[in-house]
Amino acid sequence: MYAIEVKDISKKHNIYERPIDRLKELLWRNRRCYHREFWALRDLTVNFEQGVTTALLGPNGAGKSTLLQIIAGVLQPTSGHVRVNGRLTAILELGAGFQPDYSGRENVILNGMILGIPRSEMLERMDEIAEFAEIGDFFDQPIGTYSSGMVVRLAFASAINVNPDILLVDEALAVGDAAFQKKCVKKIRALKESGKTILFVSHNMAQVTRFCDQAVVLNGGRLLKQGPIDEVIPLYEEIMEDQAQIAPKVFTQPVAAV
Fold first, then answer.
1. pLDDT tens digits for 141-171?
2. Is the pTM of this model over 0.85?
3. Which of 211, 213, 197, 212 is nearest to 86 (CA)?
4. d(Cα 18, Cα 36) in Å, to the nearest integer?
5. How far is residue 201's CA from residue 66's CA, in Å, rounded to a whole number?
6. Cβ proximity of 72 and 168 under 8 Å
7. Do strands 214-219 and 53-57 pair parallel, antiparallel, or not at all (unpaired)?
8. Edge-to-edge, what's the strand order for the sheet holding 197-201?
9. Angle at 178 between CA 172 and CA 182, to 5 degrees
């Protein structure tokens, strides 16, 4: 049994040039089209093994974050389905779901409820989460009084200290100060060593090679390759090199002397 099974997933977004175009379409009851379609994922089928750390690789816009959001249940696919076997927690947009009028403690409980974790269990883990976040007395103050760094600390602490079977990480290790990043890396390594399933999105190849056993390469919303990390990275590097070569060059024109 796989930890995560993704079957024929597609995700379409309607892109509007102007906000009023969405209103026009509603008024016309879809008899007129004012949008263009963008397919973030197209007919994607991929399985993730239990206890394996897998990197999701690809250029910007490849569909990596969309895939994680669908697996986490934040987004609904246009078609296809996902099966998750085990408790899942996701470190995506850190702090995005926090309520500014609630205290850090209250938001931790709320975050647990969203993940389907009983209140009693979150209360048992509260001291561990507070210790990991290292925000002191602010833990019982409204989130609206926090700095951005404190929000990141609380969000990461509340997501990672609930003993997940499956952990989704989307560029989360690029935030916070160096000491906190080191602490987060140590925690993720401990989860990996304990046999948890981890999906890891990062453009940092040093982190990818350090953490991941396998990799999946996406481009244009489609699966290109899945396999051992050392076999897949060359394809990813080739794609990124090709993109760099076709990217528009910026020329600077010298300013004429007055």
1. 999 999 888 888 898 888 888 889 999 988 7
2. no
3. 197
4. 12
5. 11
6. yes
7. parallel
8. 88-91, 166-170, 197-201, 53-57, 214-219, 222-228
9. 70
